Amino acid sequence: MCHMEKLILLLLLFIPLLSCAGDDKPLENYLNDDEIIELLVDLSIARAAVSQLPAEIGDSIRVGYYEQIATIRNIQVEQIDLTLEQLSKDPVRFQLFLNSAADSIRARNERRE
Predict the structure, then answer these.
(1) What is the residue extent of each domain of the chain?
(2) What pLDDT score was predicted for residue 67?
(3) Neighbours of 41 (CB within 10 A)
(4) Per-residue pLDDT tens for 69-85?
(5) How far apart are CA 43 and CA 48, in angstroms?
(6) Angle formed by the axes of helices 91-112 and 77-88, to 10°?
(7) What is the per-residue DSSP string for the chain?
(8) Backbone dihedral region of 62: left (phi > 0), alpha (psi from -120 to 50 degrees) or beta?
(9) Could you give the CA distance from residue 62 to residue 96 in angstroms, rounded to a whole number?
(10) Which residue has the higher pLDDT, 93 or 13?
């Protein structure tokens, strides 16, 4: 399994662990498509960074990463949870965003080489 597939798999694995925000407002009221893609890139990188750590340590560090991502993106952590929750309700759309995020990560990696 390539590195990109692992990142996407990790992203998909943590979605059920997110808390339910209970807000059914359309996703468009929160983040635009480009912001969602960049958020998914950030989350994928954060998940990959802690993926080899023991669960209890990785979970704590991941929370810190989410807080940093929220600060950088000028959003609340709850908005991250809500975005992921709403995306999980539309698997086709979610997959399109994941594909775009994977393409973005791949392009960044190619520029580094």
Answers:
(1) 36-113
(2) 94
(3) 20
(4) 999 999 999 999 999 99
(5) 8
(6) 120
(7) --HHHHHHHHHHHHGGGSPP----S-GGGT--HHHHHHHHHHHHHHHHHHTTS-HHHHHHHHHHHHHHHHHHHTS-HHHHHHHHHHHHT-HHHHHHHHHHHHHHHHHHHHHH-
(8) alpha
(9) 24
(10) 93
Between 95 and 14, the more confident residue is: 95
Burial (Cβ within 10 Å: 0-12, 13-18, ≥19) of residue 91: exposed
**pLDDT tens-digit readout, 24-60:** 555 445 789 999 999 999 999 998 888 888 988 888 8
